[in-house]
Design a protein that fits this description.
The structure is a homodimer. Helix content of chain A is 66%, strand content 0%. The first copy, chain A, is mostly helical. In chain A, helix 4 crosses helix 5. Chain A binds a DNA duplex through helix 1 and helix 3.
DNA sequence: GTCTATATGTGGATAGAC
DNA sequence: GTCTATCCACATATAGAC
């Protein structure tokens, strides 16, 4: 498709600038003029190379997501090959899914924190073309990991696992995207997550590492939390269904199975 | 300020329609013309009553958030009065913070799921005026609840608690906002979370209840998860710091204290 | 492939009559 | 308070010369 050197450079430069500006100002808040100016290409270049602004956004994502999701599938393949039929540990599954993503944040050649923030911010956008794009882009990975979770925690209702996967995705997306709420939260001592005024050079790689380190235990804790009382319906008395969590011990069927 | 009946009705109608459309199409994806047409008022009415489109969005939120955050502060006041100086249980704090929010979803006179979805989708938006608006609107509540968490879990590093509060906010926002990702996730048996084609009348109140019921245990599990290994640095050997979670027992200092 | 010029649409905001 | 008419900035996209 693209065979000339200049052509390739132009495409990549547009994608790089678009990625950055979409992250900083949002899709609708970023005009093609700003993008082409920033990339030092002509205004018409975007339409020539990508066809439209919508297609440009999709390409910004496809460039990173195809790698990410291939990597995720590969990681799961390896785990399942090792396990040889035995169910995986939840922590392994989460590591393969979220760890792979978070590693992007440490590698600017994969998009770095800029791409991760863009991803987090875009996942909740209501525009139809974005949603259908993500739907098709993620379908296979989600299905595979869903099944892996089902196998890993066979005693937990599947619907419950789907919800929890959803919660985990949310915690991750938001943790990455929400520089701002976090700034409100802090107002205090948070190491060197120092806003983004003079920052962004404040070592995104260190931030990505710390984020991964803190996020993974949280996700695992949420995934393996006791089931909501209404779903237990076995051991607990139906007395006060909304406030019976004084000593939330993890039940047996939520413990990982050791291979 | 507003003293005539028609005036009041006009304002409220604009706010109602704007809330719905901002939720469905996003802020930048919703023109004032669509809003005023939907509300059956004149195009100039928005600028007359609110001053600008930005101010309109802020007013849409202020109408709901002032109630919500007042309620949250009140709930915390009650808990602290009951406890009489003793630290609260984490589950109580989460119930006061997230339970109060989720109850909005069950009451359409408080905005219902429409407002919750709008809130979730807007929290990650990069536009500056929105972020500063939320920052000031949330500052007091966040500060109070942060301190409550610090007191409830005094042995957990404060920075860690701030991160986890952030993760919890994310899981919640995203769970509410992400009708779409969830649709991808499911493709299957999720009770009656049936897209939004013919739905929205599919009993938002039931959805809100189920969401709360499933979300709260997840959040509590995440909040009380074992600390990341690099922060423990006491009992565990520093051998393999990233993969030492075969049996994630909750350490003592993460257990709730009983009053 | 790149660039200029432009077509065509839409946005938010406002002045001024009623 | 409401409404009409309009201003003006800016968006995406494309036609056609180079």
């Amino acid at each position: 498709m693209a065979d000339q050197k200049t052509n390739h450079d132009t495409r990549e430069r547009i994608l790089d600038v678009a990625e950055l500006l979409f992250m900083a100002n949002g899709y609708e808040g970023t005009s093609m003029r700003v993008i082409t100016t920033g990339a030092e290409v002509n205004l018409a270049a975007v339409n020539y190379h990508f066809g439209s602004k919508e297609a440009l956004l999709c390409e910004v994502f496809r460039r990173r997501l195809s790698w990410l999701n291939r990597e995720r599938l590969h990681a799961l393949d390896l785990l399942e090959a090792e396990a040889a039929g035995a169910p995986l540990k939840p922590s392994q599954i989460l590591e393969a899914f979220f760890g792979t993503l978070l590693r992007i944040g440490e590698d600017s050649s994969l998009g770095g924190m800029t791409f991760l923030r863009l991803l987090g911010r875009t996942l909740t956008q209501p525009a139809e073309f974005i949603r259908t794009f993500f739907a098709s882009e993620y379908a296979e990975v989600i299905e595979r990991y869903k099944q892996a979770l089902f196998s890993a925690l066979p005693d937990v209702p599947k619907a419950e696992l789907v919800w929890r996967l959803h919660f985990m995705l949310g915690a991750m997306s938001y943790a990455i995207a929400g520089t701002d709420v976090l700034r409100v939260l802090t107002g205090c001592e948070l190491g060197d997550w120092a806003g983004e005024g003079a920052a962004d050079s404040v070592d995104d790689r260190a931030l990505a590492r710390r984020l991964a380190q803190r996020l993974m235990p949280f996700l695992l804790g949420g995934l393996r939390a006791p089931l909501p009382s209404a779903l237990q319906s076995l051991t607990s008395s139906p007395a006060s269904p909304s406030e019976g969590d004084t000593e939330p011990q993890t039940p047996n069927h939520l413990q990982e199975k050791q291979p």
